[in-house]
Amino acid sequence: MADNLEIKKIPEPTLKRLTLYYQYLSNKLEQEIEQISCTDIARDLDLTSIQIRKDLQIAGAKGKPKIGYTIEELLDVLNSSLGYDNINEAFLVGVGNFGQLLLNYKGFKEYNFEILAAFDNDANKIDKTINGIKVFDINKFEDLVKRMKIKIGIIATNSDSAQQIADIMVQSDIKAIWNLTHFNIDLPNNIIRVDVNLSESLSMLLSKLSNMYEK
Amino acid sequence: MADNLEIKKIPEPTLKRLTLYYQYLSNKLEQEIEQISCTDIARDLDLTSIQIRKDLQIAGAKGKPKIGYTIEELLDVLNSSLGYDNINEAFLVGVGNFGQLLLNYKGFKEYNFEILAAFDNDANKIDKTINGIKVFDINKFEDLVKRMKIKIGIIATNSDSAQQIADIMVQSDIKAIWNLTHFNIDLPNNIIRVDVNLSESLSMLLSKLSNMYEK
DNA sequence: TAGATTGTTAATCGATTAACAATC
DNA sequence: TAGATTGTTAATCGATTAACAATC
C-alpha cells in the first residue's frame, strides 16, 4: 500500500543519463532495431553496463536475462519517468536572441513540450508573431498564466531582469522555471528551477583546459 | 617535492560552485565590500558554510579566523584556479541562431575568453562579419587553427553535423570542445568536452515537474 | 578575554562499481 | 546444456556534513 504512494525520487545523475538513453534509443528504433542489451548501450555511450542496468531499474524497466530489453518498452518507461507524457506547456519571457532561438527551435515536440506564448516589455516586439507564437505585453503574464493554468515559465531576458521576472512568475503560480540567464535567481523551494548557465559551462571548459596544462 | 608536481584535480561539483562564488564575489567587490565570511556567502547562495570553506580550501584560498576572507584575494585565487587568467581564444563553427547568439554575447570578456573567428559552409554567410568577427569557409578551419595555435573549438551547428565537425576539430589539434548541439559526440579521451545540452536541461525540468505531481 | 570564524580531521551519506545468483 | 545477460545485494569510492581545535 505504502509502496505505490512512495515518491520515486530519481537521483540527478541518473536522470541526466536517462535523457541520454532516451535520445540514443529513439535513434535505434528509427534504425528498426528492436532488442538491446546493457552491454550494447554501454559500448555505444561509453558507460558501464552495470550503471545502465541500475539506471534502467530505477526508471522501472524490465528486461529478460540473455535477451536484454525491448527498445519500445524501454522508451515507454523512459517517456513516463521523464515526464514527456504530460502536457508540457510553457510561457517564455524575453524575446531577445536566446528567446527567439527557443521560439524557433524544432526539437521540443519530441518531449510534448510547447511554448504557447511569449512576453516582453518592448513595444516593438509586442504583438509580433514568431514561428506562430504571439508576443504579449509582460503585464498580461499573470492573468494568462492563471487562465490557461500554465505551469512552466522560461526566463530568457537579460540577467538584470531575471529576478524580477522570477518574482512575477512565482506570484502567477508558475511551478517550474527554466532559467536561461546567468543570474542565480532566488525562489521559494517548492518551485522547481533548472538553469542553463552558459557562463558556468564555459567556465568548466576553461578550468579543465587550464588544469590539463598544469599536468 | 612531489607535492607541487601533483595535479590539483578539482571535483566537478566544486568547480561548478567556484564559478558561482566568482560571480557572486565580483558583484560584492563592485559594491565596495572588502571582507567576507563563509557564513555570509552561505546565507546569500543558500549553501552551507562548511561546504564553502571546503571549496575555497580546494581552490587554495587562505582566510583569517574571526575575520574571514579578503574578496580581492579570493577573486585572484578563483581567477587562476578557474583558468580565467589564460589566453582563452576560440573558433566557432556554425553561424546559425545559436552561433550568432554567442558571437554577439557580451559576457565572455570577464573570463578573458574571445571568439576570434567563425566558420560555416553556407556561401551566404562566408565573408560576412558579425559583431566584428569574420566568418570563414569551414575548409579553412584546420589551417587557421594550426597557424594561430587555437585550442578551443565551439560547435554550434545542427546536431547532424556535430560529429563531423568534431572530427575536423580533433584532426586540427583542438584541445577542448564546447558542444552546443544535443548530439553526444565521440572524442578521444585526451580532448576536453563540455556540453550545453538544451534538451537534457529541458528534460530535467519536465521530469522534476512530473515527479512533483506524483507526490 | 570571549566569541566568531577558519582549517582540518573524522563521520556520514549517496552514488558507483563489484560480485554473484537467477534465468532465458 | 552452456553462456550471456538481468536483477539484486554487498563493497567501494568520493563528496558532503559534522566536530572540534586553533586563532584572530
Task: Give the strand order of the largest sheet of chain A, numbering strands 1, 2, ... along the chain.
Answer: 5-6-4-3-7-8-9
Low-pLDDT residue spans of chain A: 1-7
Helix content of chain A: 40-55%
Overall structural class of chain A, as computed from helix and strand content, comes to alpha/beta
Over all CA atoms, what is the radius of gyration of chain A? 20 Å
Query: What's the pLDDT, averaged over the residues of chain A?
Result: 92
Count of alpha/pi helices of chain A: 9
Hey, which two chains have the biggest interface? A-B, 62 and 63 residues
How many distinct beta strands of chain A?
Answer: 9
**DSSP strand (E) fraction of chain A?**
15-25%
Could you describe the largest sheet of chain A, including whether it forms a barrel?
A: 7 strands, mixed
Give the N-to-C terminal Cα separation of chain A. Answer: 55 Å
Q: What general outline of chain A do the C-alpha atoms trace?
A: globular
Name the quaternary structure. homodimer
User: What string gives the helices and strands of chain A in order?
Assistant: HHEHHEHEHEEEHEHEEH
